[in-house]
Amino acid sequence: MTDTAFLRLRGVVKKFHSFTALHGIDLDIREGEFFTIVGPSGSGKSTMIRLLVGMDDVTEGQIHLRDERIDQMPANLRPTCMVFQSLALFPHMSVGQNIEFPLKLRKEPPAQRRERVNELLDLLHLPRSYYDKRISQCSGGERQRIALARALAFDPEILFFDEPLSALDYRLRKTLEKELKDLHHRTGKTFVYITHSLEEAMVMSDRIAIMKDGRIEQIATADEIYRRPVSRFVAEFMGEVN
Ligand code: ADP
Ligand code: MG
């Protein structure tokens, strides 16, 4: 992890007609960090991530990745990838075909594709024999891992996650929290993660941004937020963890 600004937001405003969802966000995310955006429902987390991946346009302000301005760049040209809940997998295809999809788009030769898929199956602790398994025969946790493997096959610089674990039961969530943290270490990629659960944020993140009503209240490590919350809102939000 380096200290140089990697992903940089300056004065980012997002309006939906007369409603302002983001009020001029300034934010620096470092290369290789696990950065989590946490806040109550409606605080603007998904809106922010949608602007970062290019699913929606900024109203004002700029987003830079390294020295490149990306807020005007089409989504498919940005070196970013969004991991949704497992819903985004192709149900009629096999596990292997799903993971291979980005490699086919890049026109990689079949033998190389197969090797890369095997590496990704290993990385996500899925048996190589799953190559031919149907998505419909996979459990919720397996689908989540397959979705992650496919996202990594795009070889993005940044992976974005919008509440990927919120629909899962407690035990599976705990298991996947650990796996995600481990995956972050092993890939060295920048992870930007959204959750409304501060507990989840505290377990996984290098730094956390706490959002309220389209503004960032505090950016700090879990420990700093715990010991020195900057506002009553943060302190109360913190209290919900215990
Ligand atoms: P979060 O992900 O933190 O729950 P969102 O980013 O989804 O919050 O939403 C932030 C605010 O912006 C909410 O008040 C929401 O209703 C509003 N909003 C989000 N998307 C749209 C949209 N497409 N049109 C109008 N309002 C929207
Ligand atoms: Mg959301």
Q: State the helix count.
A: 8
Output the helix-strand order.
EEEHEEEHHHEHEHEEHH
Category by helix and strand content: alpha/beta
Query: Uncertain spans, ≥5 residues at pLDDT below 50?
Result: none
Number of DSSP strand runs: 10
Name the average pLDDT: 91
How much helical structure, as a percent, in the residues? 25-40%
Dominant shape: globular
Side by side, the strands of the main sheet go 6-7-8-3-9-10
- Percent of residues in β-strands: 25-35%
Ligands bound to this protein structure: adenosine-5'-diphosphate, magnesium ion
What summary fits the major beta sheet?
A: 6 strands, mixed
Radius of gyration from CA coordinates: 18 Å
Distance separating the two termini:
30 Å
Family: Belongs to the ABC transporter superfamily.
Protein name: Fe3+/spermidine/putrescine ABC transporter ATP-binding protein
Subcellular location: Cell inner membrane
GO molecular function: ABC-type transporter activity; ATP binding; ATP hydrolysis activity
